Amino acid sequence: MGVVLFKRKLTSFQIIILGFSGVILFGTFLLMLPFSSRSGLATPFSDALFTSTSAVCVTGLIIHDTATYWSGFGQLVILLLIQIGGMGVITVAASFAMISGRKISLMQRSTMPVSYTHLRAHETGRNLVCRLLLEKKKKKTKKKSTD
To answer: Cα dist. 76→34, 50, 129 in Å?
Structure first.
């Protein structure tokens, strides 16, 4: 008899957390490689983890000067981590799925806006006001339709 594994569906928030964690750890291991630094020595785990986390979360904090410490490969890894973090991990994954021809499930579609909300803090004042007015209008129309 085979072993039965429990199938458990992940919530949207668990998918987002696992996605961010996976990208951060993958970036950490790439930055730890000896050819990621100009000196050719392996970067300590804590330094690579901090740099990778800072890049994915788009905070801009660094331990080592990016231009002088990291090689071209290391700088490319950091650049890609910043791009993935800026667009959102789930959005990038869904884009790759669409490019490869796979269908996106309803759960994946509902997860994308949740992962995208962190970008709203970077909007300009005018765009933010427009978005707030549109959201308010949507809520009013939903309220009228339920009455």
So the answer is: 15, 16, 36
